[in-house]
Write the structure tokens for this entry.
Amino acid sequence: MSRANRATPSYAFGLGYLLLGFTALAWGLNFPILKLGLENSPPLLFTSMRMALGTLTMFAIAAAMGILRLPPRADWPVLFSVGVLQNMAFISLVTLGLQFLPAGRAAILAYTTPIWVVPAAALFLGERFTAPRALGVGLGLAGLLTVFNPLSLGWDDSNVFIGGGLIMLATLVWTAGLIHVRQHHWQGDVLSLIPWQLLVSVAVLTPLALWFEDPGEILWQPAFAWQLVFSGAVASGLCVAAQVAAIRSLPAVSLSVSSAAVPAVGLITSSLFLHEQATHTDLIGFALIAAGILVVGLGDRRQALRLRREAETTSS
């Protein structure tokens, strides 16, 4: 077998796209379900409970796969970083923002995160700000400005700006966590570390939720139970495991497609279950943001292929 053949990754496209389809559907559907759940529970308590269920689900998955073990000490700093920033803070801020925004619009804004990683990586990691990446960021910013079109929004409605601001803050916090992850050299298996990251999230968030919110305000009824189970066990547990498996099965550009698909599902399911009507600016903004994500993904794929060819040429 030649060096070139050995360097070529082996992808499981059937399994990978099945997993991506599952995560896109479940995470997109989770936005209207979160909106419904907030009718029965204060936001931080709801987030804490769903993440606790996600933690139990991920521990069960890791144990069933035989990979459940204590994380290496070298991974502890980034484990806490991911747990607090990418899990607890991101999910909590998005959930708080959902109180003020339609679920479909919240899904669009929450999934701008792949766009903001590009300038952050250029600024903090020295990654090249290539033309495709610049175009992708430009499309993403145009989409964001379209969603927040001053001519289409009522300036007397502060909820739009409070909710949008909370979700955009969530994307920045998530990006900060990812920059830390990219700088870190993992010692343990990523999937085996996820339960511990979620456990950190629950341990930090639960006291805060109990301090600021009253558990007596939770309306325990059957509808809330399935909302909590779906957001916890499925969206915060099974989907996370499926995403990690998909990353191992597909090229990176496919994950960009998934990032663009989630808000599309969020818009559709919010229309079906909450009877939300997406505005023209929402739809145009979504199209621009999705295009930006895809352009960035395609640009990263071309760069990865070029670097691989250069490495093969050097080693031959």
